Amino acid sequence: MSSPEQPSPEKPAPDWEAIERDFRAGSRAVTAIAGEHGITEGAIRKRAKRDGWVRLPKDKASTEPKTPKVRTAPARPVLDLRHQRFVDEYLIDLNGTQAAIRAGYSANSAAEQAYDLLRKPQIKAAIEASQKQLQDKLEIKAESVVRQLALIATADPRELIEVRVGCCRCCHGTGHRSQRTEPEMANDRQRWATAGKPADEFDEQGGVGYSPHLPPHQECPNCGGDGEPRTVLKDTRHLSPQAAALYAGAKQTKYGVEIQMHSQLEAWEKLAKNLGLYAKDNYQRSDPLSLRNMSDAERAMRMQRVLAANPELQATLGQMLGEGAAE
């Protein structure tokens, strides 16, 4: 009588952590890894694709530490005195024409001189070297500058100051006569009594209840239903990143508080220049977007069309603004 067959021992499960580590290292062939762990090469590649394993190229699989590359500022070329003066002046405001005039060139030909100078390799190299030196000294990166410009350019000024329209004093008064607030009515009655005038002769006009927050009355004969505008300043302690970037301070004048803002037109122009929306030559003398000759509404529509036609630029601005808000 034959003895019953003995069940074969269960095959151990593959050590996928070790397999992943060897696969990512890139120093061994996948077939060798599969043979060591008793599985097929296809099983490893299937798991790697499913879990997103990234295999190092063979030439980068070495674990030896590499010496980090140290970025050094480009060498500043030697220029003659006049060219160096132009570079120094240009770095002040990045205005080629004005820099040429301040450097001693004729105002009549300054624009053409600036255009030619900025195309010279040695002058471009000197400007780049100086800018890199300044960036390293101040720890300011181009990305942060562009992000700040984007914040200013896309800010809504209504976050800083608003014009609100409410009812006039006659809108909701009795018979559309001038209406008072309750404190005003009490003060006027007190003055009337102090003057010794009979109380029954006091004119209440439109009564009490005036509030500038109420909407205009469409049949008001005083304002014609248009109401009256008033200026409202916002609390600068609670501003969005865009509005905070746009805000340039406030000052007290004899007419009240004046809110100051950075120029959104200048921010748009600098942003357009940095992002390459101008001509190829970044030192152009014209304004291809014609921003200077537009009203605010036309400028906004123009920039909306530019962004709509350039999804990558729109995504870049959105990412910049999102990162700025997160910070």
Structure, described:
The protein is built from 13 helices and four strands. With 327 residues, it is mainly alpha-helical. The protein folds into four domains: 16-60; 81-140, Terminase, small subunit, N-terminal DNA-binding domain, HTH motif (Arc Repressor Mutant, subunit A, Orthogonal Bundle); 147-154 and 262-326, no CATH class; 161-233, no CATH class. The strands form two sheets. Strands 1-2 form a two-stranded antiparallel sheet. Strands 3-4 form a two-stranded antiparallel ribbon. Helix 2 (30-37) packs across helix 3 and helix 4 (81-93) packs across helix 5 (96-102). The N and C termini lie far apart (82 Å). The model is unreliable at 279-289 (pLDDT under 50).
Write the layout of secondary structure elements.
Layout: H1 16-25, H2 30-37, H3 41-51, H4 81-93, H5 96-102, H6 110-118, H7 121-138, H8 142-153, E1 161-166, H9 182-194, E2 228-233, H10 241-246, E3 247-253, E4 256-261, H11 264-274, H12 296-309, H13 311-326
Antiparallel strand pairs: 1-2, 3-4
Helix pairs in contact: 2-3, 4-5, 4-7, 5-6, 8-11, 8-13
